[in-house]
């Protein structure tokens, strides 16, 4: 939680402007993401990764359309700018990550898969800085490092401490 506190840059912001609905969806997102990580290495691991990815992307599309249909603006679907953006977002956001995860998750333990997916956080922050020109403070990087260290310690700590105890004992 300390890492989240620092990484969110709440020191330079205001919690009073935080809508409860946004906070609630953020917490729900964390739980569903954790569920995705857990179940990706355990459910249908013998199914072809292309099939798994297709089913996940299709299910996600149906869910997003069902939830946000009224918010989707009316635009020309073949507009060049929109088409280019849609292809890029679809490929790098909805197709390649689940495909690579579907191929890789069954090959490693759940703990290692969790550590590998946590690398998304520093990549997202770096992308926000480079692509969106957002300012990332050293405190935010410290928070990110604390989060990554906590995830690694949670996943690998028992192995480290067991080996260390064996060496000293």
Short description:
With 169 residues, this protein is mainly alpha-helical. Helices cover 73% and strands 0% of the residues. The radius of gyration is 19 Å and the shape is globular.
Distance between the termini: 33 Å
Q: How many DSSP helices? A: 7
The residue ranges in which pLDDT falls below 50 over 5 or more consecutive positions are none
Global morphology = globular
Number of strands: 0
- Biggest sheet character: none
> What structural class is derived from the secondary structure elements?
mainly alpha
> What is the helical fraction, as a range of percent?
over 70%
Proportion of strand residues: under 5%
Radius of gyration: 19 Å
Helix-strand topology string: HHHHHHH
Mean of residue pLDDT?
76
Written overview of the protein:
There is one protein chain. The protein has 169 residues and is mostly helical. It is 73% helix and 0% strand. Helix 3 packs across helix 4 and helix 5 runs antiparallel to helix 7. The mean pLDDT is 76.
Notable characteristics:
mainly alpha, 169 residues
Could you outline the blueprint of secondary structure elements for this entry?
Layout: H1 2-7, H2 20-40, H3 49-68, H4 80-104, H5 110-118, H6 120-130, H7 138-168
């Amino acid at each position: 939680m300390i890492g989240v506190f620092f990484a969110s840059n709440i020191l330079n912001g205001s919690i009073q402007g935080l809508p409860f609905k946004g906070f609630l969806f953020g917490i729900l997102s964390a739980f569903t993401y954790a569920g995705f990580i857990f179940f990706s290495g355990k459910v249908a691991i013998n199914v072809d990764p292309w099939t798994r990815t297709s089913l996940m992307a299709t299910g996600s599309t149906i869910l997003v359309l069902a939830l946000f249909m009224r918010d989707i603006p009316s635009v020309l679907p073949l507009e060049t700018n929109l088409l280019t953006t849609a292809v890029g977002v679809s490929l790098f956001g909805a197709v390649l990550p689940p495909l690579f995860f579907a191929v890789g998750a069954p090959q490693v333990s759940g703990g290692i898969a969790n550590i590998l997916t946590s690398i998304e956080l520093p990549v997202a922050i770096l992308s926000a800085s480079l692509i969106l020109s957002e300012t990332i403070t050293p405190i935010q990087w410290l928070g990110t490092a604390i989060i990554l260290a906590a995830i690694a310690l949670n996943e690998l700590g028992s192995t480290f401490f067991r080996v260390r105890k064996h060496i000293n004992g």
